[in-house]
Specification:
The complex is a heterodimer of chains A (117) and B (114). With 117 residues, chain A is mainly β. Chain A has no helices and eleven strands. In chain A, strand 4 and strand 5 form a beta hairpin. Chain A starts with a strand and ends with a strand. With 114 residues, chain B is mainly beta. Chain B contains no helices and eleven strands. In chain B, a hairpin with a 4-residue loop joins strand 7 and strand 8. The chains are: A mainly beta (117), B mainly beta (114).
Chain lengths: 117, 114
């Protein structure tokens, strides 16, 4: 069964450094997402991406965050200057279509654990 | 405030019994609901979804019930197995969202005793 893959599985970085989290969504999916989960807390929406642009973003997704689809298979999340509170599991997800057009749930990767020291 | 929440943080059941995991939502504009299972070290795994024009939907060993009157969602797992042990999240999508911005509940941990 096709799956969303994320690399690396664990990333350790120093405060103030830039990090790029990488994702390969399911190949025929058109909608891409980043969510995060701080340890012991809920999964939170960050951003959705369609047709090479951001379609929706949350308050968490400030100017320090950016997303990019550099080629036909990868989808990346960049944090320009990491803060301690950015430490979390970051999940990439993809869906075949927008929910309004039919049953198209999000399929999640196994996440990247980001630790900011 | 508007939120999706779970009644029980931990549910312990005997192997072979049926499990029921509950979720309450407060936003009547929500019209799409999903149950996810999350095992340790993994991402949320889709289990089953339901739209607000339905009351019940069945999958393999799982059933989701939606009661819009009391804004309640439940996940029923038949003949619970040790492999069902995980944290279960309900998530909602709201009509006024442009995309797939899911709002997740806090999660219920299901523990299956052999």
């Amino acid at each position: 069964e096709p799956e969303v893959t994320q690399t690396p599985s664990h990333q350790v970085t120093q405060m103030g450094q830039e990090v790029i989290l990488r994702c390969v969504p399911i190949s025929n999916h058109l909608y891409f997402y980043w969510y995060r989960q701080i340890l012991g807390q809920k999964v939170e929406f960050l951003v959705s991406f369609y047709n090479n642009e951001i379609s929706e973003k949350s308050e968490i997704f400030d100017d320090q965050f950016s997303v990019e689809r550099p080629d036909g298979s990868n989808f990346t999340l960049k944090i320009r200057s990491t803060k301690l509170e950015d430490s979390a599991m970051y999940f990439c997800a993809s869906s075949e279509s927008e929910w309004r057009s039919g049953n198209s749930p999000l399929h999640f990767g196994n996440g990247t654990r980001l630790t900011v020291t | 405030g508007e939120s999706v929440g779970l009644h029980l943080p931990t549910l312990s059941v005997q192997e072979g019994d049926n499990s029921i995991i509950n979720c309450a939502y407060s936003n009547s504009a929500s019209d799409y609901f999903i149950w996810y299972k999350q095992e340790s070290g993994k991402g949320p795994q889709f289990i089953i979804d339901i739209r607000s024009n339905m009351d019940k939907r069945q999958g393999q060993r799982v059933t989701v019930l939606l009661n819009k009157t009391v804004k309640h969602l439940s996940l029923q797992i038949a003949a619970t197995q040790p492999g069902d042990s995980a944290v279960y999240f309900c998530a909602e999508n709201r009509k006024n969202n442009a995309g797939n911005m899911l709002t997740f509940g806090g999660g219920t941990r299901l523990m299956v005793k052999p």
